[in-house]
């Protein structure tokens, strides 16, 4: 009955900004799958790429970002961080709900401007922190809440920066701290406790180590790299304390289970006007931690 009431006006009409590999592999496919959302249109700076992304789902190709806004009640972003920061501000001011990628922006000032605009406009925002929508991740965070953590070790490693369609210019320039860091910092901040300080060693484009001190006195370590040859991406968080250990490992995690949860929760947030905790303000928090590490 609640679902019927939420979608009495039909699925949420979502426009997609971007037509790169992530837009094709995830955003377009997820939003078009419904039933809570409908992919209405795609806009990209290369019209031919937008047409290729839209065609399998019968979505329109918007000739401009303004046209995308007119066709949609929510906008999903699959563009580089610097582009997202600019366009998402325009969308928020137009009253559109936002499905945002991480990091929010290329820099802290732009991320703060976006988060402030979202708050001032009163629009719903939500972050695509993929792993957060998987039942295994949520079970890990529930278990973590029941233990007193003394220290933690974690890693997020893959070889996507070595070549292929995800070795995009912004990822190669800014490296793992900006691409993978939001995921791992979010998990450590949520499972160990709020991070009070973070410092880094290494090269974000090759291998970078983060040391975090948490408000509760715990210390955690995070290893990040997109430039190591592995058979598959590796994400692991190990929590240690007087109550024993709690381990989170994505080796057997099927990411296809994330998309229906993400879509359903975003659509519900749009219809109710109540965002989840994974909103632009959370994105700003993660960007602040990245900025501290980069400094």
UniProtKB/TrEMBL annotation:
Q: Which InterPro entries match?
A: Gfo/Idh/MocA-like_OxRdtase_N, Gfo/Idh/MocA_oxidrdct_glycsds, GFO_IDH_MocA-like_dom, NAD(P)-bd_dom_sf
GO molecular function annotations of the record: nucleotide binding; oxidoreductase activity
Q: Which SUPFAM superfamilies match?
A: Glyceraldehyde-3-phosphate dehydrogenase-like, C-terminal domain, NAD(P)-binding Rossmann-fold domains
Stretches that traverse the bilayer: none
**Known Gene3D superfamilies for this protein?**
Dihydrodipicolinate Reductase, domain 2, NAD(P)-binding Rossmann-like Domain
Protein keywords: Oxidoreductase
Q: Where is the Gfo/Idh/MocA-like oxidoreductase N-terminal domain?
A: 12-125
Q: Which domain of life is it from?
A: Bacteria
In this chain the GFO/IDH/MocA-like oxidoreductase domain maps to 166-246
A Pfam family annotated for this chain is: GFO_IDH_MocA_C3
Keyword Oxidoreductase annotated: yes
Against PANTHER family, the record matches this protein to:
BCDNA.GH03377 (PTHR43818)
Name assigned to this protein: Gfo/Idh/MocA family oxidoreductase
Q: Which organism is it from?
A: Streptomyces montanisoli
């Amino acid at each position: 009955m609640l679902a019927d009431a939420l979608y009495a006006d039909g699925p949420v009409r979502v426009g997609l900004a971007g037509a790169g590999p992530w837009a094709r592999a995830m955003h377009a496919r997820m939003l078009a799958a419904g039933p809570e959302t409908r992919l209405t249109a795609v806009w990209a700076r290369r019209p031919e790429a937008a047409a290729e992304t839209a065609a399998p789902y019968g979505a329109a190709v918007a000739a401009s970002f303004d046209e995308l806004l007119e066709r949609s009640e929510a906008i999903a972003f699959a563009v580089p961080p610097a582009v997202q920061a600019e366009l998402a501000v325009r969308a928020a001011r137009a009253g559109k709900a936002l499905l945002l990628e991480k990091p929010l922006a290329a820099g802290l000032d732009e991320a703060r401007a976006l988060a402030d605009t979202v708050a001032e406009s009163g629009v719903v925002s939500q972050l695509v922190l993929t792993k957060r929508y998987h039942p295994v991740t949520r079970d890990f965070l529930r278990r973590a809440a029941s233990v007193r953590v003394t220290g933690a070790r974690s890693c997020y490693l893959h070889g996507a920066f070595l070549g292929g369609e995800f070795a995009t210019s912004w990822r190669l320039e800014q490296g793992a701290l900006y691409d993978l860091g939001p995921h791992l910092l979010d998990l450590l901040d949520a499972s160990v406790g709020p991070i009070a300080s973070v410092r880094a060693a290494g090269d974000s484009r090759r291998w970078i180590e983060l040391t975090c001190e948490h408000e509760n006195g715990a210390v955690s370590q995070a290893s990040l790299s997109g430039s190591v040859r592995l058979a598959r991406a590796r994400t692991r968080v190990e929590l240690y304390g007087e109550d024993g250990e709690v381990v989170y490992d994505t080796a057997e995690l099927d990411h296809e289970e994330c998309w229906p949860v993400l879509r359903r929760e975003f659509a519900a947030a749009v219809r109710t006007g109540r965002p989840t905790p994974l909103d632009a303000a959370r994105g700003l928090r993660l960007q602040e931690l990245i900025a501290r590490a980069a400094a």
